[in-house]
Amino acid sequence: MNIKENKQILLISPRGFCAGVTRAIDTVVEVLEKFGPPVYVKHEIVHNKHVIDDLKAKGAIFIEDINDAPIDKPLVFSAHGVAKNIIDTAKQMNKYVVDATCPLVTKVHVQAIKFYNLNYKIILIGHKNHPEVEGTLGQLPAGAIVLIENLDDVQNLKFENEDKLAYVTQTTLSVDDTKEIIDALKKKFPHIKSSPKEDICYATTNRQNAIKDYAHECDSFIVVGSKNSSNSNRLVEVAKKSGCDLSVLLENANNLNIDNYKNHQTIGLSSGASVPDILVQDVISKFREAFEINVKEVGAGEENISFKLPRGI
Are 139 and 84 in contact (CB under 8 A)? Predict the structure, then answer.
């Protein structure tokens, strides 16, 4: 009889679905129930393969070009937001449109427009080609917002002394990395303005802070999330910077190589803001098959924030 090795899993909270993701998924489900399938969605509603596959099975069709959606079928915009010209085009086509953009992304859009109307030149801190960034850039005329990604980009910025400057950020960035960029901006442009409230969303900040508190206690760390999820990738980076070099992003339990953890006593486990908790529980179950595990829940607990569904549902 083989005796299973003992392992401890530190299950970090908060983790998983944030309010914006829950709202976006519920929006697609409500539109499907109201109109019946198919329902067309501009871009993946959230960045998680499990969620997307589930919604596809219910009748959602994910597209990049809104012209691929028939005029007589509903069109939903993803949680990441879309450029203003896409919204205008959809309305001109007389489509039934439901905007599931996360309210915290919309807040960034509104702030950028306010700065623009006050004649500020705007800097956006974010990741090039990410759909949220493309949506924010698209709120204003081309060239009105300058995108920067890192400290080198700050040094390459060239503005006149009399220019009024302001910055906004993508909502799913690394809190610490973004602070470094903001500090560099303020040093180079002492009069630069910012949003009255933090642009990085509460869920991103909470999940990163929870991992910072416990990653140094772990021999390895797993973040459940999809490769194209910005917030999930940032969590892996935070775990590594917080003292756990052996930190990985894992799509689901099927991709878990249990042999990699034979020599690890304490394993940290969390998930990105677009990940259903069933995927985390699947990972725990796979560990339980191979080892004698003790699951210890740590962190600040779950969040109780929620957003109303969009108008028109």
Answer: yes
Partner residues linked to 98 by β-bridges: 76
Give the residue carrying structure tokens 């740590």: 298
Q: What angle do CA 177, 122, 190 make, to 5 degrees?
A: 65
How far is Cα 307 from Cα 310, in angstroms, rounded to an integer? 9
Q: Which domains does the chain have, with CATH numbers?
A: 6-17+202-299 (3.40.1010.20), 19-102 (3.40.50.11270), 104-194 (3.40.1010.20)
How large is the greatest C-alpha to C-alpha distance in the chain, in angstroms? 78
With 50 as the cut, is the pLDDT of residue 1 above it?
no
Burial of 235 (0-12, 13-18, 19+ CB in 10 A): buried
Segment 122-145, tens digit of pLDDT:
999 999 999 999 999 999 999 999
Q: Is the pLDDT of residue 2 over 70?
A: no
Q: Which of 5, 30, 44, 132 is catalytic?
A: 132
Q: Is the pLDDT of residue 197 over 70?
A: yes
Question: Rounded to an integer, what distance in angstroms lies between the CA atom of residue 45 and that of residue 41?
Answer: 7
Is 198 marked active-site?
no
